[in-house]
Design goal:
9 helices, 210 residues
């Protein structure tokens, strides 16, 4: 068994990442080390995928990018670090080099990633509003954006956690199909907000009816 096969059969992307200091939460999410990530956007299991920068691959790909190594060097590093035996003579570059995979579900995956990013962006925004517009006195009239943040934060967290991170492929597809109009409207409102609308005159982004 060559080094690529031996490593792929023995080490998951999550196990590799954790062994090199990446903190992964109970849902398998971590801050992506391949871009300036402040909110966990990388999912790690047998493979890894960042829903923000689109970094994707297996344990070897992760180590290759993380340590700036060639794939064969990354595979050998993993084998050495995890004590994995392999037959070096059995290594064949034509076998070791992964071939691009053409997936019939590519468009669905792109749509899923796009929707996940929209909800991540909205969550960051409501968290910002929750702090920025928090009433100084309990009896003060609440700012509309603070009210929206309080109403929608738990809902958005539920969508991200239960649907996109832990839901099945069928559940994600069904959710996106059922709420496509709402998601599109939310994306457009986010884009408008990003161009510099005055926060005090900006209307509530979106009333997400899920």
């Amino acid at each position: 068994m060559n080094v690529f096969e031996a490593v792929r059969n023995s080490v998951t992307a999550r196990k590799a990442a954790e062994s090199y200091g990446i903190k992964v939460n109970r849902n398998g999410m971590a801050c992506c080390p391949f871009h300036n990530d402040k909110h966990p956007s990388m999912k790690l299991d047998r493979r890894f995928h960042c829903f923000s920068c689109q970094a994707d691959g297996d344990a070897i790909s992760f180590v290759s990018r993380y340590f700036n190594l060639k794939p064969i060097e990354a595979a050998k590093k993993l084998a050495d670090d995890f004590g994995i035996a392999y037959d070096e003579k059995d290594w064949n570059p034509s076998v070791a080099r992964p071939k691009p995979r053409v997936s019939s579900e590519l468009e669905e995956k792109k749509k899923e990633v796009k929707c996940f990013q929209v909800f991540c962006d909205y969550l960051r925004l409501v968290e910002q509003w929750q702090e920025e517009f928090k009433p100084e006195v309990i009896d003060d009239e609440c700012h509309p954006l603070f009210v929206e943040a309080m109403q929608n934060k738990n809902l958005v967290e539920y969508v991200l956690d239960d649907i996109f991170l832990n839901g099945s492929a069928e559940e994600k597809k069904a959710f996106i199909s059922q709420h496509e109009k709402e998601i599109t409207a939310l994306e457009r409102r986010l884009q408008k907000f990003d161009v510099g609308k005055n926060k005090k005159t900006e209307k509530s982004l979106c009333n997400i009816a899920i």
